[in-house]
Amino acid sequence: xxxVIAISAxxxxxxxLLSDWAYSASxxxxxxxxxxxxxxxxxxxxxxALAWALVDVLRRRANVVYLLLLLATFVLGFVNALIHAxxxxxxxxxxxxxxxxxLVLAAVAGGMGLAxxxxxxx
Length: 122
Prior knowledge:
Number of helices: 6
Transmembrane segments: 34-55, 64-83, 95-117
Protein name: Membrane protein
Largest sheet: none
Number of strands: 0
Keywords: Membrane, Transmembrane, Transmembrane helix
Order of helices and strands: HHHHHH
Mean pLDDT: 91
């Protein structure tokens, strides 16, 4: 189930990247506000998935790489949130680059989690 939660953060990270891109094209500060809120929502989902994956790894000692990818996604996403808390002008280009990196990490972690997801027999 944590893989489904992890992949659910992906559209929010994508929205943050698109908002950063829209800001870089228009310089309207509201786009940075959108990106900040989308990152905050994605971090909530990524944090839930990270906690669940940590419990799963401690219980079964499996898929540590997936856990590390989720951890990297959460940490870089948090740094991205701190970057987006600055003034809109100070956010670029670091915020745009971090949003792209976090999106790729979230996609890889979500894909790896879904690939390892198997249904238990009833």
